[in-house]
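Hey,

The postdoc asked me to send both predictions to you directly instead of through the lab channel. I've kept everything plain text so nothing gets mangled by the mail client. Protein one:
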Amino acid sequence: MSALIEPFVCAYKGHLLAGVDEVGRGPLAGDVVAAAVILDPQQPIVGLADSKKLTEKKRLALADEIRAKALAWCVARANVAEIDRLNILHASMLAMQRAVEGLSLAPEYVLVDGNRIPELKVPCEAVVKGDGRVACISAASILAKVVRDQEMVELDALYPGYGLAVHKGYPTRQHLEAIERLGVTPVHRRSFAPVKAAIRDLFDPE
């Protein structure tokens, strides 16, 4: 299926195996984005790996190849309002559920990166560090990261000064200082502690 070896015991023995991963649990801004991918064994993709260990150029090239060769793929999300209402864990599960349900082919089995699984109508299994061990999960991680990174570049143009295109919403010093200086935008997660503190300081300055 790919250059990756899948060295774990999996109950799945059929063909329509979907890998699922999400990107964006840690940032202070933006949606959490998930992807689900069913790879085509007849069209192997060389070079799949954990998206965080690939260069941006390689991720973009692989994302195009995944879209072209996969039997099915879907990118979905949970937005900032849902993250604040549900909490980031439940919002991540919702995004992954939406990604699986959005596939044009119904998978027979689903492998999910991490140690938790969303509520799905098909059998599924969690794989710790699956984005570096399982080809279809790696493909999902690449699609999700490419989509979310591009969205953060677009948000950077809407909300200049925060550096969203650079740090992708993560709580870097640059981002925290920008929040303190410029305030909170509609794309910031108000339930996250640094954002919550900035809002509190705005209405209750010392």
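Protein two:
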Amino acid sequence: MHFGLTEEQQELAATVRTLLERRADSTSTRAATESATGFDADLWQTLCEQIGVAAFAIPEEYDGAGFSLFETGIVAESLGYALAAVPLISSVVAAEALLGTGDAALCAELLPSIAGGEVAALAWPGVTGPAAAVPTVVAADDRLTGTASRVLHGDRASVLLVVAEAADGAALYVVDPTQATAVATPAMDTTLRFADLTFDGTPARRIGGDAKAALHRAHLAGTALVACLQVGGAQRALDMTVAYTGERVQFGRVIGSFQALKHRMADMLVEVETSRSIAWAATYAVATEADDTEILVASAASHCGDAFMKVAGEAVQLHGGIGITWEHDISWVFKRAQALHQLFGLPHQHRALLPL
């Protein structure tokens, strides 16, 4: 790929950023996380209706926009920068799992609603862990029993997919969300919503096709998009730090003029730019089904996760005492770094997948 955005992609990024600057400020986001839904439902509706973010990676035959996951990654980077509380990752990962099954009838039934903005969730330990995660729900005679823990937006999903262990291995099922018992799970980063879903002989419809291949596709897509979120969050941390050190005065000088702090912020910039390059490469590889997709995605996950943690930690340090207070936005950046670190596998788990 060319490491630059096309004119249309630049316009997309600018449009999303402009909307988020108006609608996803700190006050709005904090209010959204304390609302009944736990996310900004109005913002999500606007993003879907006016820009079509949920439909980008869905084929036109299923009422999607027919673009690719790369365009979704551009949106994810902007959402990461804004720390916006919307269910993009949850819905896209569920859609990718559906597309990966090859079940055309079910795709035609469910994907149009996801493309339109209905919240979708995938109840699978692989969302909060590596792709090899073992299902905690058991299937027998198309009925599910067990508990799926920490399901991203699991208690607000209109479309619910569940991975369960069947007699012939892991399988993917569609479940009526109202038939599951959902309990919201508190999270460090309140802009991400999780729930534990319990099934007790719950009726389910098995999805045809290769579930293993579908979950592999969903995990690659989710991992790449989380890397994009991490890039956006790291850029936000850097920008906030540069602005703060340009205003904070100590010993009669703004602290940003001290050489030692300049070096630390230069190192932060290197982490951000290298993260952006590998995140774009990984997302493009997933979108185009490149031969080196798995290597690029594992590389992005291993680098971007650690880089965001490092940049967020430096940002807190360079903000001094106010950096650790709940009221200051930089603490939200730090919590986002911690939370994203846990999704789709830890960096060291992805590094273990890379060839020596």
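Summary for protein two, as requested: The chain has a mean pLDDT of 95.

Thanks,
C.
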